[in-house]
Specification:
It contains four helices and four strands; from the N terminus they run H-E-H-E-H-E-E-H. By secondary structure, the protein is an alpha+beta fold. Helix 2 runs antiparallel to helix 4.
Length: 92
């Protein structure tokens, strides 16, 4: 019996951050905000999102919130890619 390997996507990317502000960013700027693992770097985040959703990521900005959570703001090449990911994640 082989051991099931955990999905690296869920190891590093915990959940999308869904607020009124972040939903507007998806629609107008093509950006989605995620809560990510503290050890995730920009390259890992970019690669995981591009592979999982078959989209192009323009850039990734990260920050540590005052609550100690790491946030990643992912900017997509176009708004359509951002909408595709948002629909897949259940934001819309």
């Amino acid at each position: 019996m082989s051991e099931v390997k955990p999905d690296p996507f869920y190891k590093f990317i915990k959940t999308p951050l869904i607020t009124e502000k972040t939903v507007l960013q998806v629609e107008k700027l093509g950006k989605i905000t995620f809560i990510v693992d503290i050890n995730a770097n920009k390259k890992i985040i970019k690669d995981l999102i591009e592979k999982r959703f078959d989209v192009k990521v323009k850039k990734v900005n990260t920050m540590i919130s005052p609550r100690g959570e790491k946030k990643a703001i992912v900017t997509f090449m176009n708004v359509d890619d951002a909408m595709k990911v948002a629909v897949a994640l259940g934001i819309f």
